[in-house]
Each structure stands twice: as structure tokens, then as C-alpha cells.
């Protein structure tokens, strides 16, 4: 997993972390697709994938991109429409597709 990119998948109710890619040791890939963005995450076990799928209507995804020095771009991804969740059990790869994103910063918090 790239140290320069990190994804947190959280349950919107209570903000419980369902997945943190830093703990997986696999790969993380983000691509723009028709109507949204698709995350591909490897190293995800079946139980975690099922829990994320169960909460598909209540997901918040936080994607962090490290830059130079203290520069960090943060993105919040979520779905106006229900996110698509696909899981490849043989490769332990989870795909999450959402239709909305917003840049954010903690500077003024």
C-alpha cells in the first residue's frame, strides 16, 4: 500500500472505521469512471467486505494524498446514489464505486 495514499471507510452513523488501508498491506487504486470514482483495495477479508456491503447506504470514504512537506490533499467520497460494492474473494479485492466527492481541510477546525 502506498504510504502517500490512504483510505478510511467509515460507517456514517457513529463514524466507526470499517476499513483503513494502512493496516492492509495490499494495494489501493482510485480511478475516475463514468458517473463517479472507483476504489480498488486488495487484502480485504470477506467479513470486512460483507460489513461494508451491509452498510453501503451509510458509508463515508476519506481519501488522503500526501504531498511535499506537510501538504496533504483530503477528499471525502460518498454516494448520492447507493454505492456499488463488488468483492473478488479469490484475490481478496474490494471495489467501491461512489458518485460524489468533496475536497476538505482541517485548517479551520
Provide structural commentary.
With 109 residues, the chain is mainly beta. 8% of the residues lie in helices and 50% in strands. The protein has one helix and nine strands, in the order ββββαβββββ. The protein has one helix spanning 46-54, and strands at residues 5-11, 17-20, 28-33, 36-42, 59-66, 72-78, 84-88, 93-98, 100-104. The strands form two sheets. It has a five-stranded antiparallel sheet with strand order 2-1-5-6-9, with helices on one face. Strands 3-4-8-7 form a four-stranded antiparallel sheet, covered by helices on one side. A hairpin with a 2-residue loop joins strand 3 and strand 4. The chain is globular, with a radius of gyration of 13 Å. The termini are far apart.
Give me the secondary-structure topology.
Blueprint: E1 5-11, E2 17-20, E3 28-33, E4 36-42, H1 46-54, E5 59-66, E6 72-78, E7 84-88, E8 93-98, E9 100-104
Antiparallel strand pairs: 1-2, 1-5, 3-4, 4-8, 5-6, 6-9, 7-8
Feature tags:
9 strands, single chain, 109 residues, mainly beta, four-stranded antiparallel beta sheet, five-stranded antiparallel beta sheet, 8% helix
Strand tally is 9
The largest sheet is: 5 strands, antiparallel
Strand ordering within the main sheet: 2-1-5-6-9
SS-derived structural category: mainly beta
Report the end-to-end length measured between terminal Cα atoms.
Answer: 29 Å
Mean pLDDT: 89
Oligomeric form of this entry?
single chain
Amino acid at each position: 500500500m502506498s504510504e502517500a495514499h490512504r483510505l478510511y471507510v467509515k460507517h456514517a452513523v457513529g463514524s466507526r472505521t470499517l476499513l483503513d488501508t494502512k493496516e492492509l498491506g495490499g494495494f489501493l487504486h482510485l480511478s475516475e469512471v463514468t458517473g463517479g470514482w472507483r476504489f480498488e483495495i486488495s487484502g480485504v477479508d470477506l467479513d470486512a467486505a460483507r460489513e461494508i456491503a451491509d452498510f453501503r447506504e451509510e458509508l463515508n470514504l476519506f481519501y488522503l494524498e500526501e504531498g511535499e512537506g506537510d501538504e496533504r490533499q483530503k477528499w471525502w467520497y460518498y454516494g448520492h446514489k447507493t454505492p456499488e460494492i463488488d468483492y473478488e474473494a479469490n484475490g481478496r479485492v474490494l471495489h467501491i464505486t461512489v458518485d460524489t466527492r468533496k475536497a476538505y481541510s482541517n485548517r479551520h477546525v
